[in-house]
Specification:
The complex is a heterodimer of chains A (168) and B (738). By secondary structure, chain A is of the alpha+beta class. Chain A has five helices and five strands; from the N terminus they run ββαβββαααα. The longest helix of chain A is centred in the last third of the chain and has 14 residues, at 153-166. Chain B has three domains: 18-22 and 447-574, Aldehyde oxidase/xanthine dehydrogenase, molybdopterin binding domain (Aldehyde Oxidoreductase, domain 4, 2-Layer Sandwich), CATH 3.30.365.10; 32-134 and 193-242 and 247-280, Alpha-Beta Complex (Aldehyde Oxidoreductase, domain 3); 152-186 and 284-445 and 591-737, Aldehyde Oxidoreductase, domain 4 (2-Layer Sandwich), CATH 3.30.365.10. The longest helix of chain B has 20 residues, at 627-646. Chain B starts with 17 loop residues before the first helix and ends with a helix. In chain B, strands 3-5-1-13-10-11-12 form a seven-stranded mixed sheet, with helices on both faces. The chains are: A alpha+beta (168), B alpha+beta (738). At the A-B interface, helix 1, helix 2, helix 3, helix 4 and helix 5 of A face helix 1, helix 3 and helix 17 of B. The complex binds FE2/S2 (inorganic) cluster (2 copies). The site of one FE2/S2 (inorganic) cluster has 12 residues of chain A, from loops.
Amino acid sequence: MAATASTAAGSAHELDLACTVNGEPVRLRVDTRESLLDVLRERLGVTGPKKGCDHGQCGACTVHLDGRRVVSCLTPAVQVTGADVTTVEGVAGPDGELHPLQQAFIDHDALQCGYCTPGQIMSGLACLAEGHAGDDDEVREYMSGNLCRCGAYAGIVAAVRAVAEQGR
Amino acid sequence: MSPEPQDTQPVDTRRVDAREKVTGAALYATDLHPDQLAHATLATATIGRGRIAELDVSAAAAVPGVLLVLSHLDHLDLQSPGFVMGGGYGVQSLQPLLDDRIAYRGQAIALVVAETLTAATEAANLVRARYETEPFAATLDSPGVERLSQPATIPLPFLADLDVGDAESAYATAALHVDATYDQPAQHQNPMELIGATVSWRGDTLVVHEGTQNAGAIRHGLAQQLGIDAANVEVISPYTGGGFGQKNSLQIHIGPLALAARRLGRPVKLVVSRAQLFHHTSFRPASRHRIRLGADEHGRMVAAIHEVEHQTSRHDLFPLMYTEITSRLYGIRDFRGRQTFARMDTQSPGFMRAPFEHPAAFAFESAVDELAYAAHRDPLEFRLANDTTVDPVSGEPFSSRHLAQCLRRGAKRFGWSARQQRPASMRAEDGSLVGWGVAVGAYPASIVPSAAHLVAGADGRIRVEVDGHEMGQGIRSTIAILVAENLGIGVHDVDIVVGDTRVATQHLTAGSWGTASTLGAVHAALRALREQLGMDTRGPVDVASAVRATGRDQVEARAETLGPGQTEQDAEHARKGLPTLSGPEFPGYSTFSWIAHFVEVRVEPTTCRIRVPRVVSVADCGRVASPVTAASQVRGGIVWGIGASLREAGAVDPRYGGFLNNSLEEYPVPVNADIGTLDVDFIGEPDLRFHPVGVKGLGEVSMVGVAAAVANAVFHATGVRHRRLPIRIEDVLAGTTA
Ligand code: FES
Ligand code: FES
């Protein structure tokens, strides 16, 4: 952020953002420097996506952009105009029935503190959709962008694999 | 004491707060966004030590949206909170922003508050300081490090040197010797939840939301810092996104945030950046261990000398307690322990999972392996032959010690009997060198004063308000299972409130005492509740009708419990938010949790990349209070051990001070693909001498010894002994080509 001094007088550049978040239309004026993560958390109150590093290194902020997984901390908010954003809050069914992967996370104790879990769920869903859940090693590889400091990796692999097996 | 019969109806053992966590409904402290919220950021010092000659915050203050810039220029009305290990509450005694002194690189020099996070971030980058620098020391080998003997500096019994028998003479006359030095680097807890808080005032009452292991210290520490009554401070922390020791006391940002919130009349939130965290709060101190071991001609260990030094800051003395476990791992008659502070210019180090026990076990269990090889003995058999049932330090029995059983059962599960003793003798199909290593660990079991409040409702639900924090270890689940089993109700009929100073004293949850302490209080409160309800001391209870039969809407019961040998004075201490350092003193026995780890490594011969395809760990933690969350705790501990042995080190540049690799990219922690098959088992024997429910601690012991087992496996794979953690590709490469 070396160039920030020049913005001191006239403030930031702002642009309009129009997208959907978990199916709800959103219209908002955003600072071009704001990340999708900060807009979700601080402006829209969608706090399922977590901040673990703000540098694309931990995966806690993972959301889906038109069905693809992205780290929302490295995604400029302005860039998602026209896109559908899905966060962990948008995964369960309309009556709150859990997605099979959420249930599998509970059944396999794929979490401890729960802080990385929203990101793990979003990555896990993508891992399944991408067809990268064929065996344990493949899941380990394709889930390695999501750190879990509690070390719940074994449960995470088991949960993703269980859903992959159900889907076959 | 006889075990109380449990209702045998099986309860749902899955983690009780998992649903909130998989749906995003669990709200962590910095998920809150109250009306009128302002955002804070920190500017930090860029020198290793010295003073701020000039601070210019004008550009920062001019950024549109900036509301406030706080620095030492504002003469903040804030006292030191004291150091948590020095009779105080703080992560360190030094409170930044009060004067122009810079004690370490990365020390906060200004707090910026703005309407938006973007403006606050921009402004913090515009804070300018000119410094007068002074020489500093930042590593154990830097000139200027001040060394102090621990007992001479802090003459407290539990920090004394250990002298059992005459270890020097026994060592001198032993038939076999190992004399080696092991290095443990500084490491950083890096819980996934960044440290941060949402702070506001409700009239004269300060309300703090922060993920913590110690809401009590935050409450009382802030009262001291701000000169207000602790009754006017509320600390609320229902979920903590991992603690691992880093969140065990009052952080340095909360006092300044409270001042900012008061000045602005608005709630203020700060999320400390990952980069800043490496200097903002505690870390595992670097330590150096010289181990001398002697054995007789039969391979019986007869002498051990463990001399250790670790880094601490100039402003605080973080104590050393490494020899507590190394003196108990085996039946070694003559033991000598010496512990030394090495003061230097960093923030104060502190607790990180298995703070002393992990480095101590790495050093000691590596040395034991070296001695086993010197004696031409199988490392497993060598350990079993040196087992003990008596605490060699006190001469008293252990309340329970099933370590030999952990070793035997683990060996069987692992298939140890197929191991070839000679190093570099086992190969995988792909040509990788295969190494099998074993090591043991221990962790002192302890109990602290605790409190529980139960409310039985006419709807049949039980509300449990307790002293304790949920950091992911599963305290909610252990409580729910205990209550459900006791009353014969479902786990989801139990509502649990933790980490909230409005409902109970909140003693520090750490040191693996959480489960034993909290369950003890809940257990006592359950008895009181049964009495109130006029029910038998055992058997299922129809809570709804029992409550209605009393003619009341709800029936309450309370209990406060202490560890053995603790007094009302300790309870009072705990109510003031101070950690219990005295006791517990167990009459006639000593108490530890035990574990054995078996590790397979594979070393790829060209790149020397080390992989850990499988680990078998068997723990003796007494009764397993919550089987699902307990197994997860052990798996987590193994992951930590793998990170500690192969990945994690805070890199210090002696020229600049501070930690260079302050990101998750450059401070790698284990990722999913680093972890293979983890096979966890428990002995499961309740320890009813130690505890009414039979539980000992688990969270920390699970990590103890893993690093040694990995290092021993690397030795077995390659024939090269690595005495410095972490063991990296370049170390193995250098060893094999040397
Ligand atoms: S917060 Fe986005 S990857 Fe860590
Ligand atoms: S569950 Fe705590 S970081 Fe993954």
